[in-house]
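Deliverable D4.2, example record:
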Amino acid sequence: MLDLPKFKAAAVQASPVFLNADATVDKACKLIAEAAGNGASLAAFPEVFVAGYPYWNWIMTPVQGSRWYEKLYTNAIAVPGPEVDRLCLAAKENNCHVVIGINERGQSFGELYNTNLIIDNKGHLIGKHRKLVPTWAEKLTWTGGDGSSLKVYNTEIGPIGTLACGENTNTLARFTLLTQGELIHVANYISLPVAPPDYNMAEAIKIRAAAHSFEGKLFTIVSCSTVSKEIIDIMKEDVPNAEELLTRKNSAFSGFIGPNGAVIGEPLIDEEGIVYADIDLSKCIQPKQMHDILGHYNRFDIFDLRVNTAPRKNITFSDTQEDFRHKRQ
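Output generated by the structure prediction step:
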């Protein structure tokens, strides 16, 4: 008999200790313990929580922002690495699954990734997802990931997938996760007060989450960061009116969306904190009888989606001339 999991999930809405990886990991570990202490088996954290978002890309010139990129790079972390080990230990000690955004160092000083880590309740790093396409001004900071990280991970609480911020609007990326049996989707974001004046960021986040939940008949957990006074004060070093630019209502939304596309409980808007919801994956079954876009409500004789899941290689080394000729054929 099919017995789908039931569990409590936590969505963290918080700011990092800006550009301080060690202190931010300390904060994350405390929040994991708090969430688990309140009964959560899954804690979702914001995009690039370790150790912050490059807000300077939006409020400074590229030349001004260059020194801030250097600060971010030196506080980015390696995967695997000691900071990841600490997060895994916190997950294990608290018997809690964790999805958390980090800045991940690549192989060169110009290679930085917006990455989500997926850690199980045994403390194992079971996966990482690199954001496929940096959004707008983010291209000044991050390199895009590849299809190898478009995966769903089977855990004790169910199959988990994740996408970061704007890529939750990428229909093909979302469909790729759905086809792998995703029932728990973690969508993490940053608060972006510098959006156009008529853009309600919190509402836009909710719409994206509702679309994925309704189309895929699954649960979406949204975690968004906040802009702390610390971040604003640091940005004032180069932008005196940083407070005006980085302070705006309805810039952050954290909460839960059910398989019917409706919000579960009360979300957090702008304020730092943790919000909880009870998740029952059996609620994903009945809605699929109406619209199962992975099965009876699709036409795969008409549509054909192909996904390149091979890891990207920037360079291939050859030991011999003969080996080189063979690889070119």
